[in-house]
Structures are given as C-alpha cells and as structure tokens.
Amino acid sequence: MPWSAPFDDPIALRGGGRLVTLQQAADYVMALPEKVQHEAHWQTAVENLINAAETGGGWLMFARIAVMRALNADGKDR
Predict the structure, then answer these.
(1) Which of 19, 60, 68, 71 would disulfide-bridge 77, Cβ 3.0–4.6 Å?
(2) Which domain holds residue 20?
(3) Is there a contact between 13 and 71 (Cβ–Cβ < 8 Å)?
(4) Domain presence at residue 59
(5) pTM for the model
(6) Structural domains in the chain (count)
(7) 10 CA to centre of own chain
(8) Is residue 78 in a domain?
(9) Backbone angles phi, psi at 30, to 5 degrees
C-alpha cells in the first residue's frame, strides 16, 4: 500500500488540522521532538504505520487507531 493511501476517516487534530494519509501521519510523528518520538505510544504508532505501508489491508485501521491513541496518550495532541 503506498504511503499516499488515505485513512478511511481522517484523524482530526485539536489544532484544527487533519491527518488524511499514512504519509501525513508519518510526517507528523517525524516532526515531533526526538525524545517524544521514542515514547512507547509513538513507537507503536510508527510500527503500525510501517506495517500499513508495507502490507496494507487491516493494518491501515490499526495504524489509524495507534496514531489516535498516541495523540491522546497524555490527554492532548502536540
């Protein structure tokens, strides 16, 4: 599945933005401070994004859920 693949439902960010594709979600994570990227919930999100890009199928849904959980891990997105 290409990195340009869209999520079934975009991920809304509290700041008003949206993550529509795997690539946008990956770029969002890569823009976080390195220390934050290494937190377990973000590592889980990255692993799921990579699995979705490499295999597709149900991984796209898992990637979306993992990113949403990471965004909400501390009660707010970054």
Answers:
(1) 71
(2) 6-71
(3) yes
(4) yes
(5) 0.89
(6) 1
(7) 10
(8) no
(9) -65, -20
Question: Residue 65: what are its φ and ψ, rounded to 5°?
Answer: -60, -45
Q: In angstroms, rounded to a whole number, what is the distance separating the alpha carbons of residues 31 and 42?
A: 12
The C-alpha angle 70, 54, 78, rounded to 5 degrees, equals 20
Does some domain include residue 1?
no
Burial class (CB in 10 A: 0-12, 13-18, 19+), 33: exposed
Q: What is the C-alpha to C-alpha distance for residues 45 and 67, in angstroms, rounded to an integer?
A: 5
Which DSSP state fits 56? -
Amino acid sitting at position 26: A
Q: What is the pLDDT of residues 1-40, one digit of tens each?
A: 899 999 999 999 988 899 999 999 999 999 999 999 999 9
Beta strands in the chain (DSSP E): 6-12, 18-21
Task: Write the single-letter amino acid at 43.
Answer: Q
